[in-house]
What does this fold into?
Amino acid sequence: MSRQPVVLITGTSSGIGLAVAVAAAQAGWHSVATMRDTARAPRLIEAAQVAGVAGRIEVRQLDVTDAGQIADCFGAVVTDHGRLDAVINNAGAGHLGTVELEPVEEIRAAMELNFFGVVQVTRAAMPHLRASGGRLMTVTSVGGVIGQPFNEAYCAAKFAVEGFMEALAPVAATVGVSVSVIEPGAVASDFVANVGVDPQTMLEAAGPYAGALSAYLARTRSQFANAAQSADEAANRIVEALTADKPAFRLQTSDSAQQFIGLKLADLDGSAVQGATSGWVG
It folds into this structure.
């Protein structure tokens, strides 16, 4: 049984998830760091050892697309620790493409991981968070508020997550559960590499969209090279919300993300967003 508050985090093998697991442990939480492939755990374990918090981090296997695994994981955590005080939905993957050029099955797969994975984890978490008066936090993206070229499936999933959580928040509050969404912009992590596409191959197959795709890829490379925040910086903002007396529903992890989100939230007719994103594709 744990005397420390317990937080379960999904997708902790790299990037924001890894950094949040370590930062939460440094803030006094016991981090249950879950990942689909525990063979990738050494990087997290090393980071925990360097930070001096290895004793407050445990690694568990969890594929957020596997409902049985989710139920088993949550059951084991509560049995072992006697409590679950927070859940951070972080697992997900980017997806590049446009609807005319990719099979619908690939779009469904992106939705399955980035949206339905969040839904399944949230469903399993709610009874335990009700019992503890806990917190449910979900890492979405600025792409969950502003649709971005060649990110149709990814943004669709993140838009869905934002709507799901915005609708759930007042309902969850009636049973004592706080709900928040976290919206990072560009983060210097393995996220882009994990998209799993070869830009040259993608350009060769782009046909009439090659010019627009080339412009988009050039802009994206520049953004991640020059304007990305570190995973640690993003994680620190998330842990600030995790430990706050009353976290806001919506939180951006950087000033640039806040400015970008603000463009959409003040854009009643959509012209400001379309004007900005049209410039990304030439």
